[in-house]
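Collaboration report, partner site 2.

Our partner group contributed sequences for two proteins of shared interest, and the home lab folded both. The records are reproduced in the order in which they were received, starting with the first partner submission.
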Amino acid sequence: MNKEKMLGALYGAAVGDALGAPTELRNIDQIIETFGGYVKEYTQSPGDTFARDYPVGTVTDDFSMSYYLMKEIIDNNGNFNEDIAKQAIINWGSDEHYFDKFSGPTTRAAIENMKQNLPTDIDPFGLINYNSMATNGGAMKTIPLAILAKGDLEKAVEYTIAMCKPTHYNSNAISAAAAICCAATTALTDDATLPKIIEAAIWGAKKGKAFGIENKHVSVGPDIAYKIQEAVRIGEGATDFDDLLQQTADKIGTNFIVQESIPAVFSLLAGVKGDTMQGIYAAVNAGGDTDTMASMLGGILGGLNGVDSIPEAYIQKMQEANQLLPLQETVDQFINLFL
């Protein structure tokens, strides 16, 4: 793990988030119709998206939450646990600029409980399972944790569980988040390859699911590890970029529920053969939860290929659009903890 790979992971996650914000919620045909083709540059978000009225290049909840996570880890001298995770989420919930527009339903409900000192790790209605919490809000903010793990997959899973407990404490959400974190952790290693990244994701998905089930925080849904394996086969079988997007959208799904968006990331990763920007473009234009998929995929592939795989203009424009967050300063401080 070196500085260029760490920068690539963080800026890949941020650029993917910002590029995907305008296309969120639409399907592939609607994206092409609205924007006159595939979106590969920052563009103004339409009035029917969450990023409406915000500057071109704005990050959403995906990377703004990662920013607050990095800040809290910096303030705690590189340490991380559930209390630190909870404080980072509370701090983000106090940022009206990013929280009010972009907070997802699971995270928003958890923050409201935290503010009232209510527990977030049990269902207040006493329901047997946690199906409504199986969304990708845990997975979206694991890229900084991959850096923190320093190549150790057991640590990656441990950190993922601590991150998910305050907001996404259930077997499927933890499984999905662990898949992304373990993939990104492996991507940051010096000998990373696509097969190793996919293998780590499947391993992490199995470990995360097992933890949720063992601790009786179950959510009903298909096995994430199996879905990732199937998604990789679909991505590898795509004939071209258009086919990759359509096959991913039609056969896997790109919605914010974890059994769709997380396997979709690995279909696209396999289909673009690990190319950072092609992966981000694919996620931005595959429809559904485009900003989150592009952020996760950008984090993994940016870590694999390094910051030089992301054109500087994308990074600069994204930083300029998010001046309320001193991104460059915080990214540099965070990375310096591990050099």
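Second partner submission, folded after the first:
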Amino acid sequence: MDAKLTLKLDETIIESEKEYAESNKRSLSKLVENYFKKLTAKNTPPRKHSPLVESLSGVISEEEAEKWAREDPRIRYILTKEL
């Protein structure tokens, strides 16, 4: 169930975050909610790779991924990107 929360923040931060939310097609409320979830998450090991890389884990062998990364800079970027 959703509940309303009132926050007092510096006006420039609010405007900046509204712009960020809009440019990323998210609501400011969702950004704050996700931030709080991350802050309070317990026993969550830090990610070594981006969510995309983690979702693809096991699809191909590490050796094949390394070969592709050597041959294509776009794949190298995706495999090493940290979010």
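Feedback sent to the partner group on the second submission included the following. The chain has five helices and no strands. The chain has a mean pLDDT of 82.
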